[in-house]
Every structure is written in structure tokens, then in C-alpha cells.
Amino acid sequence: ETGVTQTPRHLVMGMTNKKSLKCEQHLGHNAMYWYKQSAKKPLELMFVYSLEERVENNSVPSRFSPECPNSSHLFLHLHTLQPEDSALYLCASSQDRQGDEKLFFGSGTQLSVL
Amino acid sequence: GQNIDQPTEMTATEGAIVQINCTYQTSGFNGLFWYQQHAGEAPTFLSYNVLDGLEEKGRFSSFLSRSKGYSYLLLKELQMKDSASYLCAVDAGNNRKLIWGLGTSLAVNP
Predict the structure, then answer these.
(1) Subunit contact A48:B48, Cβ cutoff 8 A
(2) How many other CB atoms are found less than 10 A from the CB of residue A75?
(3) In A, which residues are within 8 Å of B43 by CB distance?
(4) Is the separation of the CB atoms in A104 and A96 below 8 Å?
(5) List of chain A residues whose C-beta atoms are within 8 Å of the C-beta of residue B48
(6) Smallest Cα–Cα separation from B35: which of A44, A103, A89, A95?
(7) Best residue in B100, B104, B105 to probe A by mutation, most A CBs within 10 Å?
(8) What is the pLDDT of residues B3-24, one digit of tens each?
């Protein structure tokens, strides 16, 4: 089983829909992340959870709502999105230990907002 | 401000050696990462440098000079499967928020 699994791989939604992205990590890591990847832009950190507690929220619009029920699962709830939110959404996990912060990424959800 | 620069695109020939440069200007420095990302796939970790010098890992090596704010990724004996985007990222000590470059798209030609 792969280390970090994301579903769905592709998602098309209208601006009035509500959908959720799911991420699961099988690596025993303590921290989980949501990143946004858009063309011609660097990776943008959206949210970080460490031991299920949110430790970072980079001024993300409230139409994105994260949920971390345990250290292995992470969700991103989406509602009333805008076309500019179309992007690749990547989940990642890490040991969250000094000197060992390398990230393990899932394959991402390619989101299109119509 | 915080900034990372790397070339947008590079091309190289199968079997050759290529060097991908990354320069950074950040308020702090705890280490520098290189990731590889194939089209439509997850970024995967390649290397992590925290001290000056060269770290070798098989066909891939990564170099760091903290005084110059400079790193490079060296790929030897290029293979077609090395065609990918290579992302440079710096841990500037900002609470798990890495500073990312835009990535260098490498095309390996036969």
C-alpha cells in the first residue's frame, strides 16, 4: 500500500457544490499538510496539523475547511468555490521531528471548478 | 522577502550529466530540500542539505553553500525517466512552512 493516499484523483464541481477531499497516510507520521499547486506558482501551504491539532493556517479562505480526526486521516471540505480555486491539491505527511522533516506527498486531487 | 530562483526549463541528452541550480534569499535557514515530480504524480523526496558540501546518493548528488545562498542538484548518467520537474525548497524556520521554488522542468532526449 502506498504511503500517502488521496481520493478522488480528479474532481469537477460547480461553484455551488460541496465536496470533500480525503487523505490517508500509512507511515505512522505525526504531521499532515494540505498544499495547493497551481501552474506557474510555487507550492502553497494551506494547512498543517501536528498530532491532530492545527498549527498553521496560511490565511486560506473559509470556503476551504480542513478536518483531522486522527493522525492518519485528513480531509479538506470544499464549498462555494471559485474558478480560481482550480488546481492540484496535494496532501503530505512528515515525522515532524527536528532534522527529519522531509515530506511524503500523495498523488493529489486535480480540481476543476466550473 | 523570501525568494528562491531556479531555471524554468532545461534539456539534456540521455547518458549525460546535468546540473540544476537553486539560489535562495531567506530570513533564516534550517536546510534545503530537492524533490522530483513527474507529470501528474506526487513530488518525491530526493535530498536534504543542512551543512555545506556535497551529498551523494547514487546517480543524484546535491550541493549546498550557505554563505552564497546556493545549491545545485547534479544528475549523472541521465535516463529518460529522469524527465520531470525538480523542486527546490528551503526550511527558513517558519513553523513547517517551506519556501518553494517554481521548479525546473527537465527534458531528457534520446
Answers:
(1) no
(2) 17
(3) 43, 90, 103, 105
(4) no
(5) 102
(6) A103
(7) B100
(8) 999 999 999 999 999 999 999 9
Quick check: helix, strand or coil at residue B12? strand
Instruction: Give dist(CA A74, CA A68) in Å, integer.
Output: 5
Q: Partners of A67 in the beta sheet?
A: A75
Say whether A41 and B43 touch across the interface (CB within 8 A). Answer: no
End-to-end alpha-carbon separation of chain A, Å?
33
Longest dimension (CA), chain A: 43
Cell matching residue A7: 481520493
Nearest to A31 among B45, B96, B100 (CB): B96
Buried b (16+ CB within 10 A) or exposed e, B20-38: bebbbebeebebbbbbbbe
Peptide bond preceding A8: is omega within 30 degrees of 0, i.e. cis? yes
Whether A96 sits inside 8 A of B96 (CB atoms) is: yes
Task: Please name every residue paired with A2 in a beta bridge, in sequence order, or none if there are none.
Answer: none
A-chain CB neighbours of B5 within 8 Å are none
Q: B80-105 as b/e, with b when 16 or more CB fall inside 10 Å?
A: eebbbbbbbbbbbebebbbbbbbbbb
- Secondary element (H or E) of residue A36: strand A31-37
pLDDT tens-digit readout, B41-85: 899 999 999 999 999 999 999 999 999 999 999 999 999 999 999
Q: What whole-number distance in Å separates Cα of residue A55 and Cα of residue B95?
A: 8
Residue A90's closest chain B neighbor by CA? Answer: B42
